[in-house]
């Protein structure tokens, strides 16, 4: 019997009997004899890069599947859910694949796919992966097998970084100067960075728990991310679209190929679109019809996604193109072929999101709160028994909580939760009420042996927040998280639990400071967005009682702003200047981008004549002295070690 053992464990433990029994039940419950996904994932293979290894100019590996060689074993080990193991093995397929003659995909060089559609003279690139290095390697692989062709256009299906970050690996300055079209859904720029820029530091830290990049690869650690293997680590830059698709039904002729578009905003992304290509009888539903139940609220954080709208878009896609497509490929996972299989998958995915939405609201209207709904709801066999309905990335148990949050918010209406004590203060009281640390750990050990890991984690977490240096408590909680991770079918649950265990045992990873935002990405942001970011960095208590007014005039964009600090809040007005400003700055917006990207400093730009100053320039320095620098790392499974005011 697996027990939580010594006070300073550093290595992973074995799976407990209860976890092993759960895995055995999964093997009986799901249709593991259905291997069509493995056939589909391998179909059309043309060639690859050894181990899908991609390096940057300095020789640093930004992507490789070599560390995941352990997934060659067909049978799942006791420490991995068999269903997740199956998905993890499917996501090991990598290289260039023919979808239909004239349409190709590069898969397995990133968490996302690059789709390449051949036109009359060139190639249309759909989504450019996360990293510049990965995109460049994908293009070289395509050219190697299909011959060198000019890039006729780029299409971004939606606003998440893994679909546009590598654009500079597809097109260079000469191509951009020649006017290569960049096509994207309406409001792409408004959402592409804004989703990450305001709350970026917190979201990036939380993403470490969602994706598990610091976990060791192996049967006791990282095996997958559900949507794909893991996140790429290369360079990223955003390019501004030149052509926006505004409404459903719009068409474009691109290099002789007709595209029919469908808008799908506020589904998997705030701005997203689907398309159908009659020439190839090809349907692409971006990231809204993948081989798993997707996230309605990712662990990294985001606006809650609209499950009802998501379902309706899939229903509309069926109305528009049902029975027409002979192949369907998305921007994650592998394609599906055949009209009947395609339409069946879309119907099931449509009904998966509709069922989750409607049944959550039904139970909500019966008075159940989010946790009670998650404990109650079950997918029907027709959905839960379909492999693409499994919760490898999202999961029914946390997606229903997202739906509840979308409609009713964080508060469950029970006044006990209206103004609860924060974790440290409540932890100390729980420990006192439960009779002290020794009593808690004794009871926790007994429940751990019975496999009651969920409550053990809840109880011992209070002790860790009350006594963060209690090594026995940290060890018990780490061992408990570990078992919960081993039991999880969802890759994101597994990653979160195992990374929590790792941090309790080893502390937070040592990481270099965060790199400045690339100039290309900054250039794609509106000036208002830059000032919004400045506002959330303002330390309100430090700014108390201060008033600073600054005029800004940007010579290249023609924009003017008044930036105003008072009442400990930073606001701005566009399109005006005030004679009451303490100082004024006239410069190119590109110069400001260079300063933020740390390619130069403001005094250097002034000295070089790139900035004209009126009034007292020290006021800008005083304002910047009130700004916080956000840490790359902060505690999550234990109390914050530094005080934030």
Question: Can you put this structure into words, describing what you see?
Answer:
There is one protein chain. By secondary structure, this protein is α+β, with helices and mostly antiparallel strands. The protein folds into 3 domains: 36-406, Metallo-beta-lactamase domain (Metallo-beta-lactamase, Chain A, 4-Layer Sandwich); 421-486 and 501-506, Alkyl sulfatase, dimerisation domain (Serine Threonine Protein Phosphatase 5, Tetratricopeptide repeat); 519-626, SCP2 sterol-binding domain (Nonspecific Lipid-transfer Protein, Chain A, 2-Layer Sandwich). Helix content is 39%, strand content 14%. The chain contains 24 helices and 21 strands. The strands form 4 sheets. The protein has an 8-stranded mixed beta sheet with strand order 1-4-5-6-7-8-9-10, covered by helices on one side. A 6-stranded mixed beta sheet has the order 11-12-13-14-15-16. A 5-stranded mixed beta sheet has the order 19-18-17-20-21. The radius of gyration is 26 Å and the shape is globular. The two termini are 46 Å apart.
Relevant terms:
645 residues; alpha+beta; Metallo-beta-lactamase, Chain A; Serine Threonine Protein Phosphatase 5, Tetratricopeptide repeat; Nonspecific Lipid-transfer Protein, Chain A; 3 domains; six-stranded mixed sheet; 21 strands; disordered N terminus; protein dimerization activity; Bact_Alkyl/Aryl-Sulfatase
